[in-house]
Design a protein that fits this description.
Layout (H helix, E strand, L loop, with lengths): L1 H29 L6 H5 L6 H17 L17 H15 L5 H14 L3 H12 L6 H18 L8 H21 L4 H23 L7 H15 L6 H22 L9 H19 L6 H23 L1
Length: 318
C-alpha cells in the first residue's frame, strides 16, 4: 500500500510540474507571466526551480512587449537594464539547474537578445528552441523567419567610396525597413524595425553633417536633414536628443561664423550670428520646458552657455 501511495505521489508531482511548465510557456507566448503563482509554489521544495524561473521572467516578460521605438528599455528593481539583467539571471539559473526547462530558458534568452538588437545570438537561441518539442517551438520558428529578414537588410553591403552611392544604399535600407514595419504592424518586430529605420535616418544626417564642407550648400543640407529627422521621429524616445543635437548644429554654425568673421571687425554681422543663436535657443528651450526627461538639465546648461556666448558677441561687435 505504501509503495502504491509513493508511486501515485510521484505521478502527481510530475503532472503538477508539467502543468506549471505549460503555464509558463503560455505566459511567454502571451507576453505575460502569472506572478501570483510564485509565492504559492516556493513553499514546496519540488517546485523551487520552476518558481525561481518564474521569478526571473515575470518582470522581463512584462517589459518584453514594450514599444522600444517610443520608450527606452525598462529597468529592474536594481536600476539595471531588464534585458541585460535577465540574461545574467538566466545564465545563473542554468548553472544551478542544468537541463531544467531548456525551451523556456532558451526562448527567454532569445527574446532578451532580440530586444538588445543582438540578432545573431537571438537567432541561435530561437533555432535551438524551434528544434525542441514544446509549445514554444512554433513561435520560435516564426521569430527565426522574422529575424532572418532583419539580418538580410543589415547585411546588405554599403559602399563607402562614393557619397551618393552611400546615401542611396541608406535610402534603400530605409525602404526595406518600412516594408517590415508594415508587415509586422502591431507586434514587437514593428518596433524593432522602426528602431533600425531611425538609426539609418540618423546616420544620414550625421553623414551630411560630417561632409558638409564637401557638399554644395552643405550647411543648408544639414539643417534640412535635422528638420526632417525631428519631424519624422517625433514619437521616438530619442526625439529630445535630436532636438539638442539640432541646436548644437546651429551653435556650431554660429561659432564658425564668428571665427570666419572677426566680431570686432566690419565683416561681422551681428544679425546673422543672432539668427543662428536664436534657432539653437528655440530648440534648447523646447527641451528645457519638458519635465521628467533626462535631457532637461542638459538643455538648461546649453541655454546658459549660449546666452553667455551671445552676450560676448554683442559686446565685441559694438
Amino acid at each position: 500500500m505504501k509503495s502504491k501511495i509513493k508511486i501515485l505521489s510521484q505521478r502527481l508531482i510530475r503532472l503538477r510540474r508539467k502543468n506549471l511548465k505549460s503555464k509558463i510557456c503560455a505566459a511567454l507566448l502571451a507576453g505575460l507571466v502569472l506572478s501570483a503563482c510564485s509565492t504559492r509554489i516556493t513553499s514546496e521544495p519540488q517546485y523551487v526551480p520552476a518558481a525561481n524561473l518564474m521569478d526571473i521572467v515575470k518582470d522581463f516578460q512584462r517589459a518584453s512587449r514594450d514599444d522600444l521605438y517610443r520608450f527606452p528599455i525598462a529597468k529592474d528593481v536594481t536600476g539595471v537594464n531588464v534585458m541585460k539583467a535577465t540574461l545574467i539571471r538566466l545564465e545563473d539559473y542554468e548553472k544551478k539547474n542544468p537541463r531544467q526547462f531548456p525551451d523556456i530558458v532558451g526562448f527567454s534568452k532569445a527574446t532578451a537578445y532580440e530586444r538588445l538588437r543582438d540578432y545573431d545570438q537571438a537567432l541561435a537561441h530561437y533555432r535551438k528552441v524551434a528544434g525542441l518539442d514544446g509549445q514554444l517551438g512554433a513561435q520560435a520558428a516564426k521569430n527565426v523567419e522574422a529575424l532572418e529578414t532583419f539580418k538580410q537588410i543589415l547585411d546588405q553591403p554599403v559602399s563607402a567610396q562614393d557619397p551618393f552611392e552611400y546615401i542611396k544604399a541608406l535610402d534603400d535600407r530605409v525602404e526595406a525597413w518600412n516594408a517590415l514595419i508594415r508587415k509586422y504592424q502591431g507586434t514587437p518586430y514593428e518596433y524593432l524595425a522602426r528602431v533600425e529605420e531611425e538609426r539609418i535616418d540618423r546616420a544620414k544626417v550625421m553623414f551630411v553633417e560630417f561632409n558638409r564642407y564637401r557638399l554644395r550648400e552643405g550647411n543648408q543640407l544639414g539643417i534640412l536633414g535635422y528638420s526632417q529627422l525631428v519631424t519624422k521621429h517625433r514619437q521616438s524616445k530619442n526625439y529630445y536628443r535630436y532636438l539638442l543635437d539640432f541646436g548644437d548644429f546651429y551653435v556650431v554654425l554660429a561659432r564658425e561664423y564668428a571665427a570666419q568673421n572677426d566680431p570686432e571687425g566690419l565683416s561681422f554681422d551681428l544679425g546673422v550670428f543672432e539668427q543662428l543663436a536664436k534657432s539653437a535657443l528655440r530648440l534648447y528651450t523646447e527641451v528645457a520646458q519638458v519635465d521628467g526627461i533626462v535631457e532637461k538639465i542638459e538643455a538648461q546648461g546649453k541655454i546658459e552657455g549660449l546666452r553667455g556666448l551671445s552676450e560676448k558677441m554683442r559686446r565685441l561687435s559694438r
